[in-house]
């Protein structure tokens, strides 16, 4: 664009480019984000209405538990350390080693009844952190 330009025209052009990118590239993350629903094995997470369904059963989660689960599910296969999870969910730096994340993961597993399942959704990578496999 040449100067001087109208900010409304710039906004319209950017929106147009983003729309074309998401429509013509179905494998893009933006296309998946537009859906706002993640389905992995028996787990379905809908970000719009904060609804979590585990093996056809709705699970009520606190906002922190939902954010942790959504973080892990939106990056399947990636291992997050407890410090990383804390920083991304609470938006704060970790200054001392505490068990906050581990307690939330334990409560999350309990609500999802993972202690009785053979196929666990949230996997512990010993000495590293947590992940969800696709």
Structure, explained:
The chain is of the alpha+beta class and 134 residues long. It is 43% helix and 17% strand. The chain has five helices and six strands, in the order ααββββαααββ. The protein has helices at 7-24, 29-35, 63-74, 82-90, 100-111, and strands spanning 37-40, 43-46, 51-54, 57-59, 122-125, 129-132. It has a four-stranded antiparallel beta sheet with strand order 1-2-3-4. Strand 2 and strand 3 (51-54) form a beta hairpin. The N and C termini lie far apart (43 Å). The mean pLDDT is 85.
Indicate the topology.
Layout: H1 7-24, H2 29-35, E1 37-40, E2 43-46, E3 51-54, E4 57-59, H3 63-74, H4 82-90, H5 100-111, E5 122-125, E6 129-132
Antiparallel strand pairs: 1-2, 2-3, 3-4, 5-6
Helix pairs in contact: 3-4, 3-5
List keywords for this structure.
134 residues; Arc Repressor Mutant, subunit A; 2 domains; 4-stranded antiparallel sheet; extended
Could you give a quick summary of the protein structure above?
The protein has 134 residues and is α+β, with helices and mostly antiparallel strands. It has helices spanning 7-24, 29-35, 63-74, 82-90, 100-111; strands spanning 37-40, 43-46, 51-54, 57-59, 122-125, 129-132. The chain has two domains: 1-35; 36-132, Arc Repressor Mutant, subunit A (Orthogonal Bundle).
């Amino acid at each position: 664009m040449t100067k001087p330009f109208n900010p409304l025209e710039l906004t319209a052009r950017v929106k147009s480019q983003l729309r074309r990118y998401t429509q013509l590239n179905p494998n893009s993350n933006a296309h998946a984000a537009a859906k706002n629903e993640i389905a992995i094995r028996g787990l379905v997470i809908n970000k719009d209405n904060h609804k979590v369904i585990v093996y056809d059963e709705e699970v009520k989660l606190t906002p922190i538990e939902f954010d942790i689960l959504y973080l892990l599910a939106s990056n399947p296969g990636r291992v997050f350390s407890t410090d990383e999870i804390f920083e991304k969910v609470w938006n704060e730096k970790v200054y001392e080693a505490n068990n906050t994340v581990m307690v939330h993961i334990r409560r999350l597993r309990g609500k999802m009844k993972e202690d009785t399942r053979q196929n666990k959704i949230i996997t512990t990578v010993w000495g590293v952190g947590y992940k969800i496999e696709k």
